[in-house]
Amino acid sequence: SAIVKYHLTERGRAVVNDAMDILGGKGICLGPNNFMGRIYQQLPIAITVEGANILTRNLIVFGQGAIRCHPYVLKEMNAAREGDLKSFDAALFGHIRHVISNETRAFLMAITGSRFVSVSPRAAPRTRRYYQHLTRISAALAYVADVSMLVLGGSLKRRERISARLGDVLSMLYLASTALKRFEDEGRQEADLPLLHWSLQDTLARAAEALHGVLANYPVRLIGAFLRLVTFPLGRRFAPPSDALGHEIARLLIAPSAARDRLCAGMYLPTPESEPLGCLEAALEATIKAEAVEAKIRAAHKSGAIRGRGPEELAEAALAARVIGAEELALLKRAAQLRDNVIRVDDFPQDLGLSEA
Question: Where in the sequence numbering do the catalytic residues fall?
Answer without folding.
Answer: 50
